[in-house]
From TrEMBL:
The lineage of its organism: Bacteria, Pseudomonadati, Pseudomonadota, Betaproteobacteria, Neisseriales. Residues 1-20 form the signal peptide. It comes from Silvimonas amylolytica. This is CDP-diacylglycerol pyrophosphatase. Pfam families: CDH (PF02611). Coiled coil: none annotated. InterPro entries: CDP-diacylglyc_Pase, HIT-like_sf. It catalyses: a CDP-1,2-diacyl-sn-glycerol + H2O = a 1,2-diacyl-sn-glycero-3-phosphate + CMP + 2 H(+). Pathway: Lipid metabolism; Phospholipid metabolism; CDP-diacylglycerol degradation; phosphatidate from CDP-diacylglycerol: step 1/1.
């Protein structure tokens, strides 16, 4: 019943934004140019671009001390992209989770960035500035991490409501804890089957994933929010740029 109330409340918010297609992504289009310059213009710096292949690259976003973006080379719209929600297609969200270790290893830091502290996020259309699909990779904000650790045991493979206390007030999400260490490539297709109401308004969806402890292992907990009075559609806010991690001094 709680899940139903969450969905009904989310869907009463009328979207003033039309769902974009691959030819008209909502937002600026700066990221492909930055990606090409940082990762494909000669030999990339391993800190600025710790990973790239023919399909996508992961590069440093200088807005925060430890904040990276996964960006496809081809023109791909963000969360509203139909392909992201279809089974058997390339899931960039799952790819960012699989490669989050390249972020954790990208910079020499005092004590390192523990992999368990790394989270990923995709913002909704109203919660973003860039139209090109990009997945944020950074540290989970410590207050959020504590809340997730406290509540993680109550979640399983079914979507359940989760309220988080954030700097913007209480934010409503649906949460699902996965059985294994990886995120299924069909995570959004699975969400669409379980809750077609949300898939029908995919441009207003924001997604987040973090590790939660399960005994001696870490398992991903996925959060789905809907842009509304109870969610800013900006799951990136659950990351903090690893603000309390100090870089080792550069050699003189």
């Amino acid at each position: 019943m709680q899940v139903r109330r969450f969905l009904l409340a989310a869907l009463t918010v009328a979207s003033a934004l039309a769902t974009a297609d691959d030819q008209s992504c909502k937002g600026r289009n700066d990221l492909p140019r930055v990606l090409e310059h940082v990762c494909y213009n000669g030999t990339p710096d391993p800190v600025s671009c710790p990973y790239h292949d023919d399909a996508f690259g992961i590069f440093e976003n200088n807005r925060a001390p430890y904040h990276y973006l996964l960006v496809p080379r081809q023109k791909v719209c963000g969360i509203e992209n139909e392909a992201l929600w279809q089974s058997g297609t390339h899931d960039w969200f799952a790819e960012a989770w699989r490669l989050r270790h390249v972020f954790a290893d990208a910079k020499p830091v005092s004590g390192g960035v523990p992999l368990a502290r790394v989270g990923i996020a995709i913002n909704s259309i109203p919660g973003r500035s860039q139209g090109q699909l990009h997945v944020h990779i950074s540290c989970v904000e410590q207050g959020i991490a504590k809340q997730l650790a406290t509540q993680a045991s109550q979640f399983n493979s079914s979507w359940q409501p989760l309220d988080l206390n954030t700097s913007d007030g209480v934010q409503h999400y649906l949460a699902r804890r996965l059985a294994g260490p990886d995120i299924d490539a069909d995570v959004f297709a699975t969400l669409a089957k379980a809750h077609p109401e949300l898939a029908a308004d995919k441009g207003n969806i924001t997604a987040f994933a973090a590790s939660v402890a399960d005994g001696n292992t870490q398992r991903p907990l996925i959060l789905i929010g809907h842009y509304s009075d109870h969610n800013q559609g900006h799951a990136e806010d659950l990351l903090d740029g690893c603000g309390n991690v100090q870089a080792e001094p550069k050699p003189q």
